[in-house]
Design brief:
The protein is mainly α. It has 3 helices and no strands. It is found in: Cell membrane.
Length: about 100
């Protein structure tokens, strides 16, 4: 096993651990903002895995997939942030905050 293969294996292991911890946070996150941040982290880890695969396989076409996924994750985060903000505004106006 050469250095490149060892480095790729280590990266996959570390990303897999990060993915597992992030998914646990998505499932048991106490609040909606915690879950949104954890879901954003899951998307980032998956993007990193796709980029690592593109580098290790020598097929840069997978980077296009990673870019599209990053765009979708960004738009999803914006939508969740807008939802959380609007919910907080409704609670503030109704006097429950």
């Amino acid at each position: 096993m050469d250095f490149f293969s060892l480095a790729i294996t280590i990266v996959y292991v570390l990303l897999s651990i990060s993915l597992l911890v992030s998914l646990i946070r998505v499932i048991i996150g106490p609040t909606l903002p915690d879950r949104v941040v954890a879901l954003d982290l899951v998307a980032f880890v998956v993007i990193s895995m796709i980029a690592t695969y593109a580098i290790s396989s020598g097929h840069p076409v997978y980077l296009d997939v990673a870019i599209v996924l990053a765009l979708i994750a960004f738009l999803g985060t914006i939508a969740f942030a807008r939802y959380v903000f609007q919910r907080a505004e409704r609670e503030r106006r109704s006097g429950h905050a």
